[in-house]
Amino acid sequence: MNIHEYQAKAILRDYGCPVSDGRAVTKAEEAKTAAGELDGPLWVVKAQIHAGGRGKGSFKEADAGEKGGVRLTKSVEEAAEEAKKMLGRTLVTHQTGPAGKQVNRIYIEDGSDIESEFYLALLVDRVTSQISFVCSTEGGMDIEEVAASTPEKILSFSVDPAAGYQPYHGRRVAFMLGLEGKQVKACVDLMGKLYKAFVEKDMEMLEINPLILMPDGNLKCLDAKVGFDGNALYRHADILALRDETEEDPKELAASKYDLNYIALDGEIGCMVNGAGLAMATMDIIKLYGAEPANFLDVGGGATKEKVTEAFKIITSDDNVKGILVNIFGGIMRCDVIAEGVVAAVKEVGLQVPLVVRLEGTNVEKGKEIINTSGLNVIAADDLSDGAEKIVKAVKG
Ligand code: ADP
Ligand code: MG
């Protein structure tokens, strides 16, 4: 689960990390009062969407102004004016995809003097199963670009969870960033606080880009992007309350309500599969036959008819879907339950695109019978490659 920058900064503030004072607003009328509560002389107006690259992004609408989603202003009036221009408009960044994201919230923040911008992130390294620090002197820009062109400018190391965070970890970061004197101590302190927040709040990712050094020698977290481990949210009611459902893909949101593992993709073949491994293999083989999957969907092992029905409805609600491949290898999942779900969903929402069904495993005969006697226009398939070939042929001709 992701949260907004202003929410992430509130958490960091609670942990004693240096962040700027700021106010979040959802209405243009509130902007002037909010900006007036800040000291100035620089007010930074920042679009709050669940995507990075806002500064270099651009708005779809002409009346949102020429600038991106992070604007420096020199007066309360100007800050309110820029907030008004951005609210309700669609911001496109390299992380939003071409459709962009609607800006429903603006964060107005005290501007900082910047001496240098650094990159810093904490994340879970799945290779070592430890929390890793990643830092670079090349902050404020695209870290993927830095990793590709000048990987020597990135330092990454992981922290042994048994020993936990130690001052030498912070010193490694400080020396990589070229800090000196009291800045090193401040860095050691800040890294410790970030690590503590990361562990205690079950974060998955914590990215500060940029972490800045100011002319007075102090450090500050100027941007904050935080993602939480969805499996741990049950023990963080305070974090769950920060969820902004308007930022989520409506199909993924519906899927999460039914506990389905669903990720929307850009292709044309909708897939309904049980098991993450089989879902991956199904996506691969669709590609092999020359088409692209419209989603990843694992209905899980013990799915009910209702869950399967919902999954099918989510797939058919996607306008990009030109054909559907149901690929089930029933072990714990029973083929008849899948068949009942598919039939129920089609009865409810209809079927406008070709449907290929491949069933194998527990109760397969019963499942096939349900499909065959349902009157649905289904193309039956014998195995995985047969199914993929048939659906791609049905869609592409
Ligand atoms: P994004 O990463 O989405 O583009 P950032 O919060 O990193 O958004 O802002 C982009 C750039 O804007 C930063 O690299 C920094 O140069 C500038 N900036 C952001 N917040 C402030 C601030 N409070 N004071 C001064 N400059 C800022
Ligand atoms: Mg940033």
From TrEMBL:
UniProt-listed Enzyme Commission number(s): 6.2.1.5
Coiled coil stretches, renumbered: none
UniProt-annotated binding residues for substrate: 274, 331-333
InterPro entries for this protein: ATP-grasp (IPR011761), ATP-grasp_succ-CoA_synth-type (IPR013650), ATP_grasp_subdomain_1 (IPR013815), Succ-CoA_synthase_bsu_CS (IPR017866), SUCC_ACL_C (IPR005811), Succ_CoA_ligase-like_bsu (IPR005809), Succinyl-CoA_synth-like (IPR016102)
BP GO annotations: succinyl-CoA metabolic process; tricarboxylic acid cycle
GO cellular component: cytosol; succinate-CoA ligase complex
Obligatory cofactor(s): Mg(2+)
Molecular function via GO: ATP binding; magnesium ion binding; malate-CoA ligase activity; succinate-CoA ligase (ADP-forming) activity; succinate-CoA ligase (GDP-forming) activity
Keywords: ATP-binding, Ligase, Magnesium, Metal-binding, Nucleotide-binding, Tricarboxylic acid cycle
Keyword tRNA-binding: no
Record-annotated ATP-grasp domain positions: 9-239
Protein name, UniProt field: Succinate--CoA ligase [ADP-forming] subunit beta
Underlying gene: sucC
